[in-house]
Amino acid sequence: MSAHKLTTVLHALLCCVALVVASVAQAEISVITTTPSLADIVKQVGGEEVRVESLMSGRANGHNVIPRPSFVMKLRKADLFVHSGVDAEPWLPNLVHSSRKVELLPGGAKNLDVSTAIRVLEVPAADELTRAMGDIHVHGNPHYMLDPMNGAKVGRTLAAKLGQLDPDHAATFESRAIALEEQLTALTARLADDVNALGLCSVVTTHRTWSYFLKRFQIKQLAELEPKPGIATGPRHIASLAKKMKQKNTRLVLSATYGDVRSAARLAKAVEGRHVILAQEVNALPEATSYISLFETNVKLLALAAQEIPTGDEGCP
Ligand SMILES: [Zn+2]
């Protein structure tokens, strides 16, 4: 083969490689989410058509993340930025403004607030909006992903948005969101039976992280360790909680992997109960590797703790 012919063949080959690379790059929508749970839902719905990364780690407290400079770089390169809305991540407004991209600002084409389809709990009335109610949750309780059926709603919202960005795969995204909803519905029914069999009277939680989880699985919440969301507890509050828990035969204290776990453990000890650390996010605990296994893990941990503290003859006063 002549040198000229060889060059022509090489050129043709390089063009083919470039085309393949371009089509692969085009096929993937690059998504950045704030949390690992949202990233897992993006993965379920987006499949091979997306590449997704979460800014936060599973163990982080979304209320007080300190954004790293790399967050801005990641955002700037993303085709879509997915976040929880309802002021769950108060560090976001600064971050999206730092990106200097108008599409990433609230209402922009690349900014997706997935709370739009969610019925937010504990929304304060206008006259309650004072500093006295605490520093966070001013738009209601933002921990809605801890109800698996809210994850299904987020899946639908995501499918619609991904379908806009990649219309050729819109039907695929929609059918994956429907499949996810079916899976989560079956999971919820199964776990609800498991929780019901535990016969828990009620629980105390450190922060109002678990309101949606407890409501979905019909577990009564007696009180919280934090006197107000984001406000630290003290010995007097712990003593009054212990008294209340004994009266109600409540012996479980639930925490996330962050927050005042020491006070939670102290309170559980005071009532001869158990302190249980649950996964508030995908990857918050090693077993919670996906959105579905997060709920399986949490119900398993509740069951283990409940076995150790039988309700006894007192029942649930
Ligand atoms: Zn919170």
Describe this structure in words.
The chain has 317 residues and is of the alpha/beta class. It has 2 domains: 27-184, Nitrogenase molybdenum iron protein domain (Rossmann fold, 3-Layer(aba) Sandwich); 188-314, Rossmann fold, CATH 3.40.50. Helix content is 46%, strand content 10%. The chain has 10 helices and 8 strands. The protein has helices spanning 3-27, 36-46, 69-77, 92-98, 148-165, 170-198, 211-216, 235-247, 261-270, 291-308; strands spanning 29-33, 50-54, 80-83, 111-113, 203-205, 221-224, 252-255, 274-277. The strands form 2 sheets. A 4-stranded parallel sheet has the order 2-1-3-4, with helices on both faces. The protein has a 4-stranded parallel sheet with strand order 6-5-7-8, with helices on both faces. Helix 5 runs antiparallel to helix 6 (170-198). The chain is globular and about 90 Å long. Mean pLDDT is 90; it is low at 18-25. Zinc ion binds next to loops. Residues 63, 136-137, 143, 207-209, 229 line the site of zinc ion.
Quote the distance from N terminus to C terminus.
92 Å
The biggest sheet, with number of strands, parallel, antiparallel or mixed sense and barrel status, is: 4 strands, parallel
- With strands numbered from the N-terminus, the spatial order across the biggest sheet is 2-1-3-4
Could you report the average pLDDT, rounded to the nearest whole number? 90
Overall radius of gyration: 23 Å
Helix content: 40-55%
Helix-strand category: alpha/beta
Number of domain units: 2
Q: Give the CATH H-level superfamily of the largest domain.
A: Nitrogenase molybdenum iron protein domain
Name the hetero compounds present: zinc ion
CATH top level class name of the largest domain: Alpha Beta
* CATH hierarchy: architecture of the largest domain: 3-Layer(aba) Sandwich
Report the sheet-strand fraction. 5-15%
Which ranges are low-confidence, i.e. pLDDT below 50, for 5 or more consecutive residues?
A: 18-25
The CATH topology of the largest domain is given as: Rossmann fold
